[in-house]
């Protein structure tokens, strides 16, 4: 879901860059000014693309962290106390000790 939002933002930034390029080309007096407008547009589009992939990497890192984070918290009982396995906790059917 977050990737879809990032893709939409990237597309919007690219379209904005293209629109700005067209506006600059209309007001450009020389061919060099038009080339400069085109290069600026390409740079903005590349920046939007780079931002997309950075956000995607951040999303993957969040997913990975969230998956690890939740699996390592000790279980909590209804009374609000934490239970820990008596011995290493390698098997689910081992007795547990409750702490308060």
Can you characterise this structure?
This is Late embryogenesis abundant protein LEA-1 subgroup protein. By secondary structure, the chain is mostly helical. The chain is 67% helix and 8% strand. The chain is built from two helices and two strands. It has helices at 2-27, 31-71; strands at 82-85, 96-99. It has a two-stranded antiparallel sheet. Helix 1 (2-27) packs antiparallel against helix 2 (31-71). The relative contact order is 0.11.
What are the salient characteristics of this protein?
single chain, 100 residues, mainly alpha, two-stranded antiparallel sheet, 2 helices, 67% helix
Task: Outline the secondary-structure elements.
Layout: H1 2-27, H2 31-71, E1 82-85, E2 96-99
Antiparallel strand pairs: 1-2
Helix pairs in contact: 1-2
